[in-house]
Design a protein that fits this description.
There is one protein chain. The protein is mostly helical. The chain is 70% helix and 0% strand. It has one domain (4-312). The chain has helices spanning 4-27, 33-54, 65-92, 98-105, 108-119, 127-144, 156-178, 191-207, 210-213, 222-250, 252-255, 258-274, 280-296. The model is unreliable at 301-315 (pLDDT under 50).
Amino acid sequence: MNNRANYVRLIVLALLWGASFLFIKVGLQALSPTQVAFARIALGAGVLTALCVLSGGRLIGFGSAEARGLWRTIAVAAVFGNVAPWILFGIGERTVDSGLTGVLNATTPLWTVLFGLLYGTERSLPGARLLGLLAGFSGVVVILAPWQGADGLLGWGVLACLAAAASYGVSFVYIGRSLSGPGLSGRPLSPLTVATMQMTAATGIALFTLPVGGLAPIEPAPLPLLAVAALGVFGTGLAFALHIRIISDEGATTASTVTYLMPAVSVVLGWLVLDESFGPRVLAGMVVVLLGVALSRTNVRGSRGRTRAADTEPSEPARS
């Protein structure tokens, strides 16, 4: 990195996104998965909107057909990149430890490569990347240990967490294909503007999911509500802004290194705060998954600057 401040930003980002799984776990003590997701998204949208306005960024309305088309495209990205995965993580964490959820979230780059192959954004897969893909998913199998029956970790909660990571993968592929144009009216949109639009669209979509999980708090309590507030303000709004800043300063490849820090943060916080424990099999599986992620990203180059709408999320990090 060229700037010591960006080291600090990267560490803070890993702490915020890694802690998000702890916040979700605590928030679920009072709220349903849909309520946690909606609160997180709405608070994150508020923070990003404020940052966008304060930085002089553009706020895009619905006045032109081109703008409405852009909003529709971003709404699809919001479904797969925000609403669906965050509800699924909430469902999963009802039965899955927060630390293990963070480890499963680290499979996001593997899903991105897999869906990229299916949708044509990945036209070839050199040997090292193929090995990484196979190693990464092998690490997941080691973690789940389905051959151990009741002693293994395979269950609906784990499958929900993996589905959330896969949804992130779909969103990255979709963004790469659909938001790589010049912007709006020939003018490039800043990454912060696009992120604000996506979180705003996600807020509206998530609102319609609330009846599914119930509208009233399950058991209102100060600590869970504070955890959800921290999840929205810090783990979503400020974390996204930090991610964008690191990409702008250092490029997507550097920003993607957060992928390797987040699982460790989530595991340590789960152990310290919630007294979660992990056996050697889970830790070994985590190492294999991260090794697979590293290999799968061989020769993947990051980008700098603000030339494309898609540059908001080009690094395919395993974000929370």
